[in-house]
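Shipment paperwork, digital attachment
Item: protein structure file
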Amino acid sequence: MPFAIPRYMTKKIAIIGAGPAGLTAAYLLAKGGQAVTVFEKDPQYVGGISRTETYKGYHFDIGGHRFFSKSKEVEDFWTEILGDEMLERPRSSRIYYNKQFFSYPLVAMEALKKLGIWESGLCVLSYLKAKAFPKKDPQNFEDWVVNQFGQRLFNIFFKTYTEKVWGIPCKEISADWAAQRIKGLSLSSAIYNALFKPKAQGKDQVIKTLIDSFRYPKVGPGLMWERCTEKCQAMGVEVKMNTGIKGLAQSENKSWSVTSQANETFAGFDHVLSTAPMRELIASVSPRFPQVAFDGAAALAYRDFLTVVLICKDEDAFHDNWIYIHDPSVKVGRIQNFKSWSPFMVPDPSMACYGLEYFCFEGDGLWASPDADLIALATREIQQIGLTQPSAVVDGYVVRQPKAYPVYDQTYKEKVNAVREALSAYPGLYLMGRNGMHKYNNQDHSMMTAMLAARNILAGKEVYDLWDVNEDAEYHEGGNRGADDLAAVKGRLVPQRVTA
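Attachment content:
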């Protein structure tokens, strides 16, 4: 018999942001009988950075989002929301370096041939040197990667692209980012996987960087969150679009009120779950956070990016989902091929739709460039790389994405920790998701933090620490804390797999 929440336990919950974390929490809490209001500042799109925008019938992703997780709960959630509207797609990606394309992950013989015997030998020697004399306790991105791959391969396949993404030297990027994003991958593991294709493994054994297929919604990741929003609304969730938040206030009785940028106030919330950027959220809370946390949050940095969408005649088609651009002679950092993500993204089979991603800071010269100039730049650079000709480009469109990436500089951790420690004085306030926690989360990671916040609320106490979700969307805890308390609510929380 499903667990029923008594009416006196029903709580009023505000969720800031209708991205993957916010909508996951809204859906699960609504299933648990809670009264939920979602505040989303975008006037049109849900999904946050996982939204899908459209232009003249063309659909495009904001950054490329694979649907693959080691968490069965996350996979089951996706299936419950979209069912047979999820496609199984082959992964195909390459690196562009020195006017050549390299398969990614590495194909050993191809890399050997394209780098040349001499360069390949130097790379192997550099790798062996790194293994024989590793940098002890690496604190920055460069030292961490050099330990895994050697200095020479770092210079070829990591340095240029990483510095394009972050806009700062690799020595100034925390090793945490490397450990999180390429955990489990080294030169030896890449070569082994290239030479000896692994036997089928469970998802918990797969290095995410090396997966060769993934699921993907028919017309982009935004479809997942549009459907999720519809299901939430059917359960009574109120979704307020075009409603940015400028203030949160906790009363003496510990209830919360939310003030919109239009100066509307919504009061009486038992909990606030925020996916807003930590820098903005902490500055908006009353009573004010302690000075060290307030100042730390205010000093957090973000990296922004823009996508130049080129709609082209499909004359010089390439079949990759995306290509990393390691060539410093062009500004573009990554190129998406939306037709390869899903053929349903492009309404005319004779056409193609490419997204050229430029990493920048909000307000800098690139960000502030007129759309026409950015489309002209992208057209020149895609020709320079050799992927299509200017004559094939028939239209263009620009999407700017602020605060796409929380920056992992050398001091970010102490700033975030100061906020974490101060949160205990603000009962009912949860930070979730990528920008809410200032963690470079994947979509499934963000969703898991929301799932745990929902569990805590349904259990009526703090059973799970959201900060203990790791980069594989797995929860690591000491002991068996809270297992009995959650046994009753788990059946309500975890969606059941939909079968065809």
